[in-house]
Amino acid sequence: MGALNAHLVPAVDGVAYGLLLYVAAAGLTLLFGIGGVLNIAHGTLFALGGYLAATVSDGSWSSALLGLAVAVVGGTLGGAVLAVGTAPLVERGELPQALLTFGLALVGGDILSTVYGGDEHPVVVPHAVNGTVHFFGHVYPTYRLMFIVIAAVLAVAGTLVLGRTRVGALLRATADDRAMVGAMGYAPWRVHAALCAAAGALAGLAGGLGAPIIGPGPDTADKVLMLSMVVIVLGGPGSVLGAFVAAVAVGEIETLGVSISSDWAPYLLFGMMAAALIVRALRGGLGGVGIAMPGKARA
Amino acid sequence: MTGVIEISGLTRAFGATVAVSDLDLTFAAGGRHAVIGPNGAGKTTLLNLIAGELRPTSGRIRYDGRDVTRTARAKRSRLGIARTFQQPTVWSSLSVADNIALAAWPHAGTRGTWRRRRYRALSESCERHLETVGITDLADRPAGALAHGERRMLDIAMALAADPRVLLLDEPAAGLTEQGVARLLAAVRALPAEVTVVVVEHDFAFVSAVADTVTVLHDGKLLATGTPAEIAADASVRTAYLGDLGEPGVVEEVR
Amino acid sequence: MSAPTSPVTPSGSADPSVETEPVMPTVRASQTARTILSSPRLRVGAPATAAAVLLLIAPSTFDGYGIGLLSKALALGVLAVSVVVLAGFAGLPSVGQAAPFMVGAYTAGIMGQHGHGIGVVQLVCGAGAAAGFAAVTGLVVIRTRELAFLMTTLAVGELAVAVAGQWHSLTGGTDGMYGIPPVRPVPGTALLDSDKSVYWYVLAATVVVVAVAWRVLRSPVGKLLLACRDHEARMRSAGHPVTLYQWLAYVAAGALAGFGGVLMCTVNEYVSPADGSFANSALVLLAVVLGGATSPLGALLGAGLIVATRDWLSGPFPGHGPLLLGLMFIIAVYALPNGVAGVKVRLPRRPGGSA
User: Fold this and answer.
1) CA of A249: how far to CAs of A234, A235, A274, in Å?
2) Which of C35, C227, C236 sits opposite B91 (nearest CB)?
3) Residues in chain B closer than 8 A to A294 (CB atoms)
4) N or C terminus: which one in chain A shows less Cβ crowding within 10 Å?
């Protein structure tokens, strides 16, 4: 019972961390699953959102909101750059697009480190939630509780949009078959641009919102990209529920797992990923794109 | 009757569309068989199932007395089932001669083809197939630069180079010039008598010239079997064709 | 590679080495029959001669730092050649090829620290260990295609890096392995304790292994791989065990990468998980894009260009190597569609060209 108690705080941290990863991974999976772009610059967009929010915030509510807005706008603009950059490459397949996003990530990372330096930027959360709350005899930062609520609302809202709305239906149809959008009368370049912008906005939002948890720093971009990738691989591309479960699981491993056994937690994370890959490979590929034969007309 | 290919209860569905439905068929060894039918009758699907490009939803396929229903595509090819494609596909960055040699490779029965000398010998032994289809002068041309008709001829030569026991031809005459069709006919007639040929074709004149047995498919089911003359006279076959006229096939598109 | 006029240099100086430039003006842009096998000797000749001259006179003209960079470029070049095998020929553009490279490097490092300091033995063991790594991971990787292949190779690479960072007792953890003693090329020879001697050793090893790779790729084996790349389903239809070929190519490329990793360890006398990073994998992909997807020599030149950009051209702008590399990536993707197209071969041919 005592051991359980000692791990309560990291366990709740894990939920916060997991929800953050869910929001962060959403942007990556949107572009990966629907736009067909493996966006290596995703972590950079997250970091951009974090830096922007950190710069604007000064401890007041208005600055926090402004910071979020700036982060979203910054992420969206970053997404727009991606859209402009990848649009001419769509016909040339996945690899040129992935390489381009890597180039953009290098350039973006260099700009960020030039502007913000090599140190982590602490974010000033609004004073009202800068304190702690007590529950079950534990002390817990108020901001994180608030974050859990906000991220949960975002997650539920996103899931509802995807599951219940026309836009969501279009997105799901497109994920199954990318030729669908054209068939439904939407200009493909518009859909591509909208996807890039939305993915950028989500990355920026996650960066701004999550700045107090994964603070913007030189390692942020890589870390977020990798963890988002793990979430997608574990959850299975295109699976909303899978991504959610995977995100929380990864969050718990990164917090609760590390607090229980810091030696083994990383193995657990990547062991799970390896297991997921093996299972999917045996079943015939990831998310249906597995054994697609080249040259086969998709009639 | 013993057949080199025996199909029983064969069904293949694509979602709600049943392309081949509970089909029982036997192709006699050494026969010249044609499979005809309106668009969407399941002809190409049938070839794909025999060749192993597709797995059946249910049913069995026996080849030469052994069950090959779950045998992989490449293995079936090595057992002696070769085919051509409706949309002929070639290895575009390699030369025509290389395409033929690579098609012959798994069937050549020699080891060490990866050595330059053995490969060259194999390539030389394949020149006759180029001659058969009349593209000898294209041997050094990159296959990707061929015109459609030439590509189809190459595809046929590649199937011949596999030294098949069963040769599946998917609309081989489509898009060929008269001269090309004549060459194709000659090539099929020149095949050893023990080779079984199954040809899917729309052109009934070609079918009559090649086949001794014609099988008519309609909606994935067997409609009639007989000699070309019998089939031409069959009333139910005509109804099937006329009744479906103008209705575009769905399944035909799925190779 | 003289004037530091950064962005123009990559595309400009790489062009002559691109074997896949239109040899036949009439070919359609999509399914080209770029004649990789017709060996345009002239086109390869000029840059190859220039590179050979540079490599031979380098030790007497460059300082220690420059020679070290050149050695690094050669080691990275061997890794790039492994990507040529995999991406250019087999049509499997791995984005985790630095992982077997790292396995080779660690093998050499561990051997060196345990007193096994014979270079040739390290090369054989490193290549063998990396081949073993590729043999196991290949079972999973080979089954995926397109986006899933990118994702899976990336995941496998990161997995390897994570394990290297955690396995303190073997690898020294994230800090890496320091002070790996210099090697003797073969028993009875002198220790390679100077930049120059290391350079000659690395150059000799690189020439040998790249020559072997080149010869194999020009043999019927190369044709098999190209055919799998061009049209995998047709290969299966013809009776070829395609999955086996691809797995063997993956293992062979792994061995090559491991060979490069051993050389890198000899040059740096230091190994860390960073050697296996995605950045390394992406850099060699860029090298292959710059050099033309099916040209081992081009890949070597591309690797040289990248190391020069990252560690040498960036001299006037300290800390901005990534910026230059990033620009290089962006320019290469747009300016060298043939290079990239040669790598990106698994794009399904969509008849209508829809997105």
Assistant:
1) 10, 10, 15
2) C227
3) none
4) N
Q: What are the tens digits of pLDDT across the range A17-63?
A: 898 888 888 888 888 877 778 888 999 999 999 999 888 887 788 88
In 3D, which of A130, A158, A108 has the Cα closest to residue A64?
Answer: A130
| Cβ neighbours of C25 (radius 10 Å) | 5
- Other beta carbons within 10 Å of B239: 12
C7 located within any domain: no
Q: What is the pLDDT along chain C (355 residues), one digit of tens a residue?
A: 333 333 333 333 333 333 333 333 333 333 333 444 344 444 556 777 888 888 888 888 888 888 999 999 999 999 999 999 998 899 898 989 999 999 999 999 999 999 898 989 999 999 999 999 999 999 888 888 777 788 888 888 888 888 888 888 888 888 889 889 999 998 888 888 888 999 999 999 999 999 999 999 999 999 999 999 888 889 999 999 999 999 999 999 999 999 999 999 999 999 999 899 888 998 998 888 888 788 888 899 889 989 988 887 777 777 788 888 888 888 888 887 665 444 443 333 333 333 3
Residues sharing a CB contact under 8 Å with residue C25, sequence separation 6 or more, in sequence order:
none
Whether C248 maps to a domain, the answer reads yes
Of the candidates C347, C198, B223, the one whose C-alpha atom is nearest the C-alpha of residue A98 is: C347
Q: Are strands B17-28 and B3-14 parallel, antiparallel or unpaired?
A: antiparallel
Total count of domains within chain C: 1
Comparing CB atoms, the residue among B51, B102, B141 nearest residue C227 is B102
3-state class percentages of chain C: helix first, strand second, coil last, to nearest 5: 70, 0, 30
> How many residue pairs from chains B and C have C-beta atoms closer than 8 A?
104
Adjacent-strand bridge partners of B246: none
Nearest chain A Cα to C328, which residue?
Answer: A103
Question: What's CA A140's distance to the chain center, in Å?
Answer: 25
- Pairwise CB contact (< 8 Å): C159 & A274: yes
Instruction: Tell me the DSSP string of B9-40.
Output: EEEEEETTEEEEEEEEEEEETT-EEEEE-STT
Domain that holds residue A113: 2-283
Q: Which residues of A touch C350 (CB under 8 A)?
A: 179, 297-298
* Within-domain flag for A267: yes
Identify whether A292 is part of a domain.
no
- Give yes or no for a contact between A41 and A109, defined as CB atoms under 8 angstroms apart: no
Q: Is residue C236 part of a domain?
A: yes
- Domain tally for chain A? 1
Indicate yes or no: CB of C220 within 8 angstroms of CB of B113: yes
Q: H/E/C letters for each residue in A151-175?
A: HHHHHHHHHHHHHHCHHHHHHHHHH
CB of B149 less than 8 A from some CB of C: no
Place of tokens 């002809």: B43
Q: Is residue A85 part of a domain?
A: yes
- Which residue, B230, B166, B228, B229, is CA-closest to B198? B166
User: CB distance from B89 to chain A under 8 Å?
Assistant: yes
Domain containing C221: what range? Answer: 42-343
Q: What is the DSSP letter of C180?
A: P
Give yes or no for B92 touching A (CB within 8 A).
Answer: no
Q: Residue A232's domain is classified under what CATH number?
A: 1.10.3470
Hey, is B205 helix, strand or coil? helix
Cβ-nearest to A107 among C144, C150, C326:
C326
C158 touches chain A (CB under 8 A): yes
Question: CB-based contact (8 Å) between C154 and chain A?
Answer: yes
Q: Which residues of B touch C236 (CB under 8 A)?
A: 72-74, 77
Task: Please tell me chain A's helix, strand, coil percentages from 3-state DSSP, rounded to the nearest 5.
Answer: 75, 5, 25
Residues in chain B: 255
Instruction: Evaluate whether residue A298 is within a structural domain.
Output: no
Residue C245 is assigned to a structural domain of this protein: yes
- Interface predicted TM-score (ipTM) of this complex, two decimals: 0.85
